[in-house]
Amino acid sequence: QVQLVESGGGLVQAGGSLRLSCATSGRTLNIGNMGWFRQAPGKEREFVACTNWNGASLLYADSVKGRFTISRDNAKNTVYLQMNSLKFEDTAVYFCAFTRLYTDVCYRATGEYDYWGQGTQVTVSS
Questions:
Q1: 20-29, 68-77, 109-118: which range is least confident on average?
Q2: Percent of the chain topping pLDDT 70
Q3: Going by DSSP bridges, is the β-strand pair 120-125/10-13 parallel, antiparallel, or unpaired?
Q4: How far apart are CA 60 and CA 108, in angstroms?
C-alpha cells in the first residue's frame, strides 16, 4: 500500500508563487510515474503535469506550460510542483497521483494512476 501526502497549498495573490510537495510512503520503494491534477468547484478533475519514473520525461497541460514546473527527488520519494505567475483560474484542490509503472513517458489520464493523495487547496486571489 502506498500513501501520498500533499503539502504547500495556501492563499496567494495573482502573480505570486507556491510550491507543492507530495511525499509517498509505504512498504516498498516508491518509484514510478507521478502526476499532479486539480479540481475546481463544479468541474471535473483535470491533468496539470506529470513525470515519468526517473524525471526524464515531463508533460504539462497547455494552461500551465511555462508557469509550472514538476520535479522529483527519488531519494526522498517526493515530487514537487513549482507554480509561478499564478492566476485566479488556477484556484483548485491539487492532487498528486502515483503508479508503479516504469515507462519512458508519463500519462495525462487519471486512470493511469493507482494511488491518490487527499489534496491540498490552492486559492489565488485576483
A1: 20-29
A2: 97
A3: parallel
A4: 9
